[in-house]
Design a protein that fits this description.
Helix content is 38%, strand content 17%. With 247 residues, the chain is of the alpha+beta class. The protein has two domains: 149 residues, no CATH class; 81 residues, no CATH class. The strands form four sheets. A three-stranded antiparallel β-sheet has the order 1-9-8. The protein has a three-stranded antiparallel β-sheet with strand order 3-5-4. The longest helix is centred in the middle third of the chain and has 20 residues.
Length: 247
Amino acid sequence: MNDEMTALSIDETFRFSCNSRVSCFNECCRDLNQFLTPYDILRLKKNTGMTSTDFLQRYTSQHIGPESNLPVIALKPDSSDVLKCPFVTPEGCSVYEDRPSSCRTYPLARMASRSRETGEITEFYALIEEPHCKGFEQDNTQTVGEWIKDQGIAPYNEMNDLLMEIISLKNRFIPGMMDMKSKHMFHLACYDIDTFKNQIFNEGLLDDMDIDSQALESIKNDDEALLKLGIKWLKQVLFADRNKDGV
């Protein structure tokens, strides 16, 4: 595949549109190699009405990231020879309102880095021009910023950026492979959040953390708050002893 990538600023424009009238509609949902972020899983398991445990078992596989050495979740394609997304239909995406961030962002790719000194996130965008895609021949033109707003990408970026600090701390304090217990805690708090919640309320998992009753009450019905708390918990249990100046 001879994909071309063109760097774009937030105010630069690009020409692209995808809909059922485009001849290659649904082609990008085949030959699947789709990784899911914790927030992707949160949205998809709610859309499908499943617990995180059941969703992960039915629709995903787990790997270890070659660079981060952290557990990575991939969407499991169907069993056909075209390896298509399990949520694609002839009419399009059946989970469109909660589709993963990489699907929303396409044909853009977002790259972000976090300053160790200030914590500030710097982001970059690139346009991915795949030869088979006819979306670039359509008349719609928009800026990168307009695309982000129109596709509802901002909340995904915000939640995904929270994970960057975990990855940064891991690279600093635990280079290489993590032990099994640490990998289990990462998987629990980031991916299997329903089990994480059950262990909070039924097994006293967070009894050692200073969490007020209002915050605990909020995570009973707010998965985003639960995911944020999980990332905070990971920072404490994995890195607090290694970073005496705090995280």
